[in-house]
Amino acid sequence: MISAMRIGRHPRRAARGVLLVIAAVTALPVLASAQSSASVEAVVIPVQGEITDILWRGIERRVERAREDGVRTIIFELNTPGGLVTSALGICRLIKNLPEEIHTVAWVNSDAYSAGAMIALACDEIVMSRSSAIGDCAPILMGPIGGADQEISDRLAAKVESPILQEFRDSAQRNGYDLLLARAMVKWEQEVWWIENVATGERRFVGGEEKKQLIDEAPDDGEPQWRLVTSFVDPVTQREHELTQPIDRDDQLLTLSQGEAVAFGFASAIVSDLSELKQYLGLSSEPPVLETSGWEHFAVWLNSNLVRGILFVIMIIGAYIEFHSPGLIVPGVTAVIALVIFLAAPYAAGLADVWTLVLFGLGVLLLAVEVFLIPGFGIAGLLGLSLIVISFIGTFVPTEPGAPPFSWPTLPGTWDAIKTGIIVMASSTIIAVIGIGLLARYLPYAPLASKLVLPNPEQNEVVSVGDASPDAAFVGDVGVVTGALRPGGQARFGQRIVDVTSQGEYVEAGTRVQVIEHDGMRIVVRPLKDEPNA
């Protein structure tokens, strides 16, 4: 009412106000768009620590988020000793498949060794920090659960090197890096020399044989056309440094410092921090850093071999206790939770493929058929158990880049993961068996756990199994519990000891019980409301 009266008194002012509101609302998307485009000019994605599938999937998610925000420059901040070949190849293909309008920059801060060098060369441009290094990408085989490097044969080395060399070759051709230097980061037993033309000053990198032809075996009838480069100017200190030739010997892998990387044409600049990087790239503001999420850190911990081994032990022990003392619920629920985490953690992190869950489901289905439809334990049961074991091992196996589901492993890293899965599961099974033995021996006598496991009878205790026929006890008969009911156990009726079960509750030994149900071989009892016998 008040608003209508005011509008009626000042129609022109009201009209102007309405127009201003409409203009403001109309301008909001434009302003938001301009602000958004200014705020997402570039982003920094850290690539730190060991290169794993979890890191790969995390980078994939952050790159997708950057693309959704309209980012035109993605900076990969590298500080890594290397990692899995399959993961590094996946990151390289992710970078190379980005649209051409997105400029990718590898900022080596401070080390990009092995798989890190592979990722750096996949970017459009490499920038080094003031104290950094790049190179040394020879393939190695890690121990089954980590640890020291292992010697590999020449044939296996050639097989492992093949996809790495192809990736380095493709990156060098795409981004204008020297192919010989890129190869020297991966391949042993080759020399690299830096020579220059005496007349033109042209500099190039050559192998040992070409250097021999151009310099060592050059005719002596005049001034030589080529000579070795003896020094280069450090772009940081602007001082001339003496160069040791060859720059890569046949017994080492090429590793470059920040100055060498710029001098040899790998890096385009040297920066010390984000501020200098912003100035070099011509950005209006410092790019935000898309940090690794807490979920990724948790996923790394949850998918570690130690944690997964503990989960497997909990699963086995919990299942044993539940089957040994049915009705306790807690051990069974704990085993199921451990199983779900064991299967879901690698799948949720993008490590395991869907085929592992498919095999597990088929295995459970075959076991159910064996238990409920086919008497005994035959082919269906063995096949189901085998599929479950294979699915468990499969959760340790990373997905090979570009490989379809159910494909045969082709990379040595995949076979190493299979070995790791077998070793972790075998060792966990042994630990679980030892744990079950200790629980069976000591847990029944623990004060707080005596209600969970039936104690073994003493050697001098005489137990009469009695009549196991259906007429061993009748509805209304009263007996005494000889061993605690959890809910299953035994009770004495006269001179007979009969297997009975309670209605789900725990019944202490010595309690008088009455039969309330007799269905075939199943006898259900309830405790009487009086004190337990002494």
Give me the Rg, rounded: 36 Å
CATH level-4 homologous superfamily of the largest domain: 2-enoyl-CoA Hydratase, Chain A, domain 1
Count of beta strands: 19
What is the makeup of the main sheet?
Answer: 7 strands, mixed
How many structural domains in the coordinates? 4
Summing up helix and strand content along with how strands pair, one would put the structural category as alpha/beta
Shape: elongated
Alpha plus pi helix count:
16
CATH class of the largest domain: Alpha Beta
Overview of this structure, please?
With 534 residues, the chain is an alpha/beta fold. The protein has four domains: 12-185 and 251-281, 2-enoyl-CoA Hydratase, Chain A, domain 1 (Alpha-Beta Complex), CATH 3.90.226.10; 191-247, no CATH class; 299-352 and 395-445, no CATH class; 470-527, OB fold (Dihydrolipoamide Acetyltransferase, E2P) (Beta Barrel), CATH 2.40.50. 45% of the residues lie in helices and 17% in strands. It contains 16 helices and 19 strands. It has helices spanning 2-9, 11-39, 53-68, 85-96, 115-122, 154-175, 179-184, 208-216, 258-263, 274-281, 294-302, 305-324, 330-348, 354-372, 379-394, 412-442, and strands spanning 42-48, 73-80, 103-113, 125-128, 133-135, 141-142, 149-150, 193-197, 203-206, 226-228, 231-233, 240-242, 255-257, 269-270, 478-483, 488-493, 496-501, 512-519, 522-527. The strands form five sheets. Strands 1, 2, 3, 4, 5, 13 and 14 form a seven-stranded mixed β-sheet that branches. A five-stranded antiparallel β-sheet has the order 17-16-15-18-19, with no helix packed on it. It has a three-stranded antiparallel β-sheet with strand order 9-8-10. β15 and β16 form a beta hairpin. The longest helix has 31 residues, at 412-442. It is elongated.
